[in-house]
């Protein structure tokens, strides 16, 4: 036998040994996983556990497209009923498909169903400091408490002037450029929340505010299950070294630096200079400077600073408190107004009924609007009908093991209210596809959270729901008082309306109702719109 043949044989043996170890390791890994699963199933029982793939579970089965994803969830609801479970990267996501189970778990057992388990990317983008995804605990309670004290209905007089001014600008923008009515919605929703939080109005070329809206869209995209490879393999974000060599975290790290990091960085892609600071920091420092000069107008931040509430938080926590409020209200109001326009064309009878109530007044003040039950019902219906932002709600994390109707849930499970399916379920609402405000004309008309899950559920309900509801009351009343809406194309409501602020969500023609209404807008609203153009 030659030496070369002996060497070849030894090389082949070494190769076989390596493969043997690899196979043994894989067998051991699968065996450990199998034993772990047996132990889990002997201890816990989950509803409608959908079969998935090893290690990644159902993560690769969730469609990316909105319409396809909603159909996928609808099919699972039809298959499993009021609850079903998806395994995403080792985390169990339990979807709640009826008001009954949402109320039983997220409301009645809120003490243990109110935490958050942030997705890896959302945690990196905020370092765990954004209230929306913050775990239930002392910091969450302190931040929410101070927000609630300032944003509740007893403080309405602080925000009413801004809401009146911005709704007038909304009417004038409709009149001046009716073909771009959807952009008027974006301008109103953005400027009114900017005014409420920071006491200033947005101008058309307001780069700082546009940067904030862009950051919001980027952050929200990180919240969905399976939105990043790190959601499937969470250990990727725990690697301690060489962050710059971890491409899955680059976007989240950059977003954190851009929005609220205390250090200043250069970001040429967003036209930001190194000495300008982060988006939130610039807004907060601007309020402080105007307060020092004695010319700052009342807003959330003036109340927050004058009450010394900021002393209970770090500088970065203060920045995220402000930024969270700014971003939370912008898209919700804009999309709800888009819903109103679509509904007015698809179901014109309710719009006609609304105008009968509104036409009794020559001009609608904020006080007039709050005395109209039908407007309150219209706004409630807009929060229920075809939800476009949180179509699957926001995640609630269970803090300890719990049992419910024969099921046993492990701590750390994620619970989602399946808002779109609930809103479109005939077992939940009579004629769910119909925009029908009369469904809310009952004894709960003044309970702003009753009858829908538009603001979330349990202790995680949106802290700014009172301000957001009032914004909608005055905007909807004044729009329907002054304008007619007619569809110019087919409106597909089998999926949420597009959330792109630069393109119309549906094809609609807007016309002012009469010359008298035109003169009213020109007389009462021109100055408000002009001030917004100049930032005064």
TrEMBL record:
State whether keyword Aminoacyl-tRNA synthetase applies.
no
- UniProt keyword list: Heme, Iron, Metal-binding, Monooxygenase, Oxidoreductase
Cofactors that this protein relies on:
heme
> Which sites bind heme?
462
Under the heading InterPro entries, the entry gives:
Cyt_P450, Cyt_P450_CS, Cyt_P450_E_grp-I, Cyt_P450_sf, Cytochrome_P450_fung
Look up the signal peptide feature and give its range: none
CDD domains according to UniProt: CYP64-like
Q: Name one Pfam family in it.
A: p450
User: Does the keyword field hold Oxidoreductase?
Assistant: yes
- A GO molecular function held by the record: iron ion binding
PANTHER family in alphabetical order: P450, PUTATIVE (EUROFUNG)-RELATED, P450, PUTATIVE (EUROFUNG)-RELATED-RELATED
Q: Which family does it belong to?
A: Belongs to the cytochrome P450 family.
Full protein name: Cytochrome P450
The scientific name of the source species is: Septoria linicola
User: In the record, what lineage is assigned to the organism producing the protein?
Assistant: Eukaryota, Fungi, Dikarya, Ascomycota, Pezizomycotina
């Amino acid at each position: 036998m030659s030496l070369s043949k002996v060497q070849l044989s030894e090389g082949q043996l070494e190769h076989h040994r390596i493969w043997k170890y690899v196979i043994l390791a894989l067998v051991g890994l699968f065996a450990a996983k199998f034993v772990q699963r047996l132990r889990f199933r002997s201890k816990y029982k989950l509803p409608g556990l959908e079969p998935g793939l090893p290690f990644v579970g159902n993560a690769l089965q969730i469609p990316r497209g909105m319409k396809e994803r909603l159909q996928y969830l609808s099919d699972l609801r039809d298959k499993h009923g009021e609850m079903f479970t998806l395994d995403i990267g080792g985390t169990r996501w339990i979807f709640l498909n009826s008001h009954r189970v949402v109320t039983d778990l997220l409301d009645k057992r809120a003490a243990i169903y109110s935490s958050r388990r942030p997705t890896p990317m959302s945690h990196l983008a905020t370092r765990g400091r954004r209230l929306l995804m913050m775990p239930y605990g002392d910091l969450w309670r302190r931040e929410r408490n101070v927000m609630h004290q300032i944003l509740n209905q007893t403080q309405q007089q602080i925000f009413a002037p801004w809401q009146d001014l911005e709704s007038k600008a909304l009417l004038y923008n409709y009149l001046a450029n009716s073909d771009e009515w959807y952009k008027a919605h974006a301008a109103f929703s953005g400027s009114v929340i900017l005014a409420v939080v920071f006491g200033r109005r947005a101008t058309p070329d307001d780069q700082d505010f546009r940067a904030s809206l862009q950051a919001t869209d980027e952050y929200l995209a990180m919240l969905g299950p399976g939105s990043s490879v790190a959601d499937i393999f969470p250990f990727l974000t725990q690697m301690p070294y060489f962050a710059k060599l971890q491409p899955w975290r680059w976007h989240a790290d950059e977003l954190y630096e851009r929005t609220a990091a205390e250090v200043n960085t250069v970001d040429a892609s967003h036209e930001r200079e190194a000495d300008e600071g982060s988006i939130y920091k610039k807004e907060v420092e601007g309020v402080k400077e105007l307060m020092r000069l004695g010319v700052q107008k009342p807003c959330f931040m003036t109340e927050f600073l004058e009450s010394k509430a900021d002393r209970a938080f770090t500088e970065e926590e203060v920045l995220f408190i402000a930024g969270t409020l700014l971003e939370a209200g912008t898209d919700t109001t804009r999309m709800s107004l888009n819903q109103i326009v679509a509904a007015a064309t698809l179901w014109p009878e309710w719009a006609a009924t609304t105008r009968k109530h509104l036409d009794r007044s020559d001009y609608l003040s904020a006080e007039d609007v709050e005395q109209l039950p039908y407007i309150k019902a219209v706004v409630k219906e807009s929060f229920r009908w075809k939800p476009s932002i949180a179509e699957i709600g926001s995640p609630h994390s269970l803090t300890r093991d719990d049992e419910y109707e024969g099921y046993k849930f492990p701590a750390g499970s994620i619970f989602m209210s399946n808002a779109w399916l609930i809103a479109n379920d005939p077992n939940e609402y009579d004629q769910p596809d119909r925009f029908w405000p009369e469904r809310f004309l009952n004894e709960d008309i003044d309970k702003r959270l009753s009858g829908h899950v538009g603001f979330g559920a349990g202790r995680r309900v949106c802290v700014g729901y009172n301000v957001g509801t009032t914004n909608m009351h005055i905007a909807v009343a004044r729009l329907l008082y002054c304008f007619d809406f007619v569809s110019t194309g087919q409106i597909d409501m089998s999926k949420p309306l597009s959330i792109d602020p630069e393109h119309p969500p549906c094809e609609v023609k807007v016309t002012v109702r009469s010359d008298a209404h035109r003169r009213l807008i020109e007389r009462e609203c021109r100055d408000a719109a002009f001030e917004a153009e100049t930032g005064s």
